[in-house]
Write a structure and sequence with these properties.
By secondary structure, the chain is of the alpha/beta class. The protein has one domain: Thiamin diphosphate (ThDP)-binding fold, Pyr/PP domains (Rossmann fold, 3-Layer(aba) Sandwich), CATH 3.40.50.970. It is built from twelve helices and eight strands. An eight-stranded mixed β-sheet has the order 2-1-3-4-6-5-7-8, sandwiched between helices. Helix 7 links the parallel strand 5 and strand 6. Helix 1 packs parallel to helix 7 and helix 3 crosses helix 5. The chain binds thiamine diphosphate, iron/sulfur cluster (SF4) and magnesium ion.
Length: about 300
């Protein structure tokens, strides 16, 4: 994409009504508003159980202006496939189908239907918002919960295992477009979703969405926490377009620069209250090695 979107040329039309049931400071709320602008009004959403179903609410008081199919937890990839097939059968052209699911609904329980759709190359965009736990049901650990994070199912030492790298798993299917984004950089997210609408077959967007309620920080710091994840190099913004990988936006600007210590990110959230110094050093080493690989 040649021209980057700025706040001045973002479409003015809102596809989300004012007011929603999300917690204040919800990172998902940011990407939902901006993401729908990128998808456009000729879009059908497919959404499994999650904080998004709560944020959207139910007809006739739903917060979204777009048609939305609420589906079972495991079936987003299959249901989006079916919606597109039905549109094709009716010869309805120019309608974008977008699956939009949480990290639990993507990295764990919905992975099989998403994997099948990617392998078949189904025509839809899949957006995973990653708040790094099953938030809607009270903060249970998911495959993408980071190591060391306390959740209601990892209450003492925090999660023992590393975060599952879902974009890499999806990229392994060889689909035409995979991108990572953050609620802290909504214009970068806008441009990536917009680009995805122009690319055929299955597209996957993975968005990091800070969650004040589940992560333990003041709701006014959502963007700050999201930026810290990028500035420490823990979360990397990139895109893989037709198999070509490249760092993007704020992460690209960090190349060959000194990253902030990961400790700053951990200390800003109560979910990491049990993290040990040795785990922090281990994570710092992993981040340094990863970024050394980007620079070479
Ligand atoms: C088969 C099935 N199991 C469990 C649930 C209960 N449930 C509803 S939302 C949810 C959490 C979803 O987590 P995630 O996908 O990460 O989205 P988030 O709530 O974090 O936004 C769970 C476990 C369900 N609706 N269906
Ligand atoms: S629990 Fe987290 S993700 Fe869910 S609505 Fe609240 S802030 Fe948003
Ligand atoms: Mg979640």
């Amino acid at each position: 994409m040649s021209e980057k979107t700025s706040i001045l040329n973002l479409p003015e039309e809102e596809l989300v009504h004012s007011g929603s049931r999300a917690c204040s400071g919800c990172g998902l709320g940011i990407i939902y508003r901006i993401g729908l602008k990128a998808l456009g009004k000729n879009t059908i959403l497919v959404v499994p159980p999650s904080c998004l179903t709560v944020l959207q609410g139910l007809y006739p008081i739903a917060s979204t202006k777009l048609p939305c199919l609420n589906v079972t937890f495991a079936s987003t990839g299959a249901a989006a496939t079916g919606v597109k097939a039905a549109l094709n059968a009716l010869n309805k052209k120019g309608i974008t189908v977008a699956g939009w699911a949480g990290d639990g609904g993507t990295s764990d329980i919905g992975l099989q239907s998403l994997s099948g759709a990617c392998e078949r190359g189904e025509e839809f965009i899949y957006i995973c918002y990653d708040n790094e736990a099953y938030m809607n049901t009270g903060v249970q650990r998911s495959g993408t919960t980071p190591q060391g994070a306390v959740t209601t199912t990892t209450p003492i030492k925090g999660k023992l295992q590393q975060k599952k790298d879902v974009p890499a798993i999806i990229a392994g299917h060889g689909i035409n477009y995979v991108a990572t984004c953050s609620a802290a950089y909504p214009l970068d997210l806008y441009d990536k979703i917009k680009k995805a609408t122009t690319i055929p077959a299955t597209k996957y967007i993975h968005a990091h969405t800070p969650c004040p309620s589940g992560w333990g920080f003041d709701p006014k710091y959502t963007v700050k926490i999201g930026r810290l994840a990028i500035e420490t190099g823990l979360y990397v913004l990139y895109e893989i377009e037709y198999s070509k990988w490249r760092l993007t936006g704020p992460s690209e600007k960090l190349l060959n620069k000194k990253l902030r210590p990961v400790r700053d990110y951990f200390e800003a959230q109560t979910r990491f209250k049990s993290i040990t110094s040795s785990l922090i050093s281990q994570v710092q080493k992993q981040v340094d090695e990863k970024w050394a690989g980007f620079a070479s």
